[in-house]
Design brief:
The protein starts with a helix and ends with a helix. It is globular and about 70 Å long. The chain has helices at residues 2-14, 17-37, 43-79, 82-87, 94-121, 129-153, 159-176, 188-194, 198-210, 217-256. By secondary structure, the protein is mostly helical. The protein has one domain (2-256). The chain crosses the membrane at residues 21-39, 59-75, 96-126, 132-155, 162-183, 220-240. This is ABC-2 type transporter transmembrane domain-containing protein. Residues 12-206 form the ABC-2 type transporter transmembrane domain.
Length: 257
């Protein structure tokens, strides 16, 4: 397991500058751009906005990691037959999936931590160690439905199709759920849709936590519902693919006989 972890860390994360840029550096760049350059107001208003927008860019980073990072990693390994070769080894594919899952969670945690440090050092946002740790925990939990969606997208027939699907999901979902600007600025029909998105539930939870408010049960239930829905689709799709493969093998044996 540890050797698999080191191997996957090198080949998918440390040597992949594109992954690092889009999942960590780009959300941080947008955060600093909107909180230091494209904003005006009193000191109190700027401080409030810097903390609120921290939550938004955290969820945006999680979305990019899931739909572009996780989906691409799994798709690439499946298309290159790497997963197939692992399935033929004594250890099987379990260490691989545990390794990828662990690294994705760690990368999400690192992304949140770096955004928090930027908010503290550059914008002067006041965050206690407990708030920083709690934010990381909430962000990791909020990322689970997004990761499940990324895993579903990894079964796209081609890398080009996957890229189109990710782009058509990530950016519209970020906009309509209020990650780029307040959701109150959107038309009422768009607000109704946006408030059903997993990114909205996660952003609202994180924002309320940082503002030391009570955490809405609705947000938690919303994230759980998305996770159950996407997890169910993933399990169902896996079972259907397995049944189809078994059917093809059975038909092949009949033809050979």
């Amino acid at each position: 397991m540890f050797n698999q972890l080191k191997f996957d860390l090198r080949r998918h994360f440390l040597r992949n500058s594109t992954y690092t840029f889009f999942t960590i550096l780009m959300p941080m760049g947008f955060y600093l751009l909107f909180t230091k350059v494209m904003i005006q107001g009193s000191a109190a208003e700027l401080a409030t906005f810097a903390k609120t927008y921290l939550s938004s860019m955290t969820l945006y980073s999680l979305t990019i990691n899931a739909l572009f990072g996780v989906a691409s990693i799994l798709h690439e390994d499946r298309e290159s037959r790497f997963v197939t070769r692992l399935s033929l080894t004594p250890a099987g594919t379990m260490p691989y999936y545990l390794s990828i899952s662990t690294l994705v969670v760690l990368m999400n945690a690192l992304s949140v931590l770096l955004l928090e440090l930027a908010a503290i050092v550059i914008n002067g946002v006041a965050l206690s160690p407990l708030q920083m740790l709690g934010s990381i925990v909430i962000a990791v939990l909020a990322s689970l439905p997004l990761i499940a969606l990324g895993v579903l997208y990894s079964y796209a027939p081609s890398q080009q199709t996957l890229s189109v699907m990710a782009n058509l999901t990530a950016f519209p979902m970020a906009i309509i759920s209020g990650l780029w600007w307040p959701i109150s600025m959107l038309p009422s029909w768009a607000q109704h849709i946006g408030k059903l998105m997993p990114t909205y539930f996660g952003n609202d939870l994180l924002t309320r936590f940082l503002q030391q408010q009570s955490l809405p049960v609705r947000d938690m239930m919303g994230l759980a519902a998305w996770l159950i829905l996407l997890g169910g689709l993933l399990v169902g799709g896996t079972l259907l693919r397995h049944r189809r493969m078994m059917g093809e093998k059975f038909n092949g044996r009949k033809v050979a006989a």
